[in-house]
Amino acid sequence: MSRRLEFSPTVRQKIIERDQGCFFCRRLYHMEHALPGDLAPKDIMHVVARSHLGLGVEQNGVLGCRYHHSLLDNGNKGLHREMDSMLQDYMRELYPGWTPDSVTYHKWL
């Protein structure tokens, strides 16, 4: 199962090409405490988290920098809910009919 939750190199490349930079940096989202070094490394972030069995598929990944990935994952600034909503809206724009359930691992499917 854990392999199904990881992004393959091919999927990673598709997400990088699709997003062309950090999803949140492009929107200038809460940049006030970001350090330049935190913005350069790019991560593939799960929309539905791996801890919630989010699959490693293109429809569940977004390109992000370390700064925003940390904000999303740690949630210590109370931004997780808003960031999650933004990511889900983005997925719905790209993939009509997208739902969190559609990118969540289900043992019996």
Strand content: 5-15%
What kind of assembly state do the chains in view correspond to? Answer: single chain
Specify the helix fraction band. Answer: 25-40%
- Describe the sheet with the most strands: 2 strands, antiparallel
Please mark out the parts with pLDDT under 50 across 5 or more consecutive residues, or reply none. Answer: none
Separate helix tally: 5
- Mass-distribution shape: globular
Helix and strand sequence: HHHEEHH
C-alpha Rg, in Å? 14 Å
Number of domains: 1
The counted number of beta strands is: 2
First-last Cα distance:
12 Å
State the secondary-structure class: mainly alpha
Q: How do the strands of the widest beta sheet line up side by side? A: 1-2
Mean of all residue-level pLDDT scores: 91
What does this protein look like?
39% of the residues lie in helices and 9% in strands. With 109 residues, the protein is mainly α. It has one domain. 28% of the residues are buried. The model has no long low-confidence stretch (mean pLDDT 91).
Task: Give a short overview.
The chain is mainly α. Helices cover about 40% and strands about 10% of the residues. The protein has helices spanning about 1-5, 10-20, 35-40, 65-75, 80-95, and strands at about 40-45, 60-65.
